[in-house]
Amino acid sequence: MAKRRIAIFGWSNSVHVQRWVSGMLARDFEIKVITLGGDPLSDAETFVIPRRARLSYLTQAGNASGQALKFKPDLVHAHYAVGFGYWAMRTSFHPLLLSVWGADVIDFPSNPFKRYLIRKVLRNADHITATSQLLKDTVVKLLPGSESKVTVIPFGVNIPDSVAEFPDSPPVKLCFIKAHYKKYGPNILLRAMAVVAREIPDIKLSMAGSGEMTESLRQMVGDLQLEKNVEFVGFIDNREIYPFIQKHHIMVMPSVLESESFGVAVLETGACRRPVIASRVGGVPEVMRDGETGLLLPPGDVDALAAAIIRLVKDRELSIRMGERGYEFVKENYDWEKSLDMMAETYHRLIHEKK
Question: Could you tell me the pTM of the whole model?
């Protein structure tokens, strides 16, 4: 039987797109990726359309859709409803699968025109996948009556064969692995660290990532006299994320906006048998069990965050127990192989229904 051919619209430099493509190739699909900007993928045919102007998604839609149709696909799959979803719609090809990611359905529909456009893209899709129940509910609110054509397929994580033992302490080491944007609350974390450091002077925090707030965060560290407690470690490649997490005792994710639609970092931390302290926002509560795999807190509450950190730092056995339960929870519910199986089954079902 010939391989099923899938034309994928998505940004080739996204680790999410890269993982989906690699996983589907391993399940014997033939894939062509059409991307705006980014680099060619090493394992799949890739057509890169240069991003030359702000309106490239509109001006290059014909070129993009033509490249997809030239591939003679059995199915078209768009990752991200805005932009790439529009390109998929312009192919007029069916079956068309649309995967929503978060900001595309939470933040984008901010005015009547954008709301009209996103609803048109959603309505055109034969099926929609969402990484969380939160995102499914958001889609259904935008497109009432669409419950039956939206499936939750989580962006799972690889379960490592072995995990490093819980590190010795003191000092206890925390890590932050989000971009340095206000919505992820890095400034909230530094203010909480100032409170914690007064009680636990040797506490350590590794601030991974970078972003528009990096310089102001460095200034905060100086102003709060946290130079001995906080280290900026820069970007961590996804292939190195597990070893990085395992060097630490606790991962902290103090996001403040509902656009935190899923929380892959929470799952990666659980897979490493480490506990999580996170804000109760967006889809994060779906990937945690409060009091069992970590602690969920009100967003933006510096005192609550500081208290949670102090609690886990002082109770090593509780931290270890939460890490173990986090591992069991992730393995049971968010194994990446199960996510790939669900997507492959969706591909086959849609192709079969079309035929």
Answer: 0.91
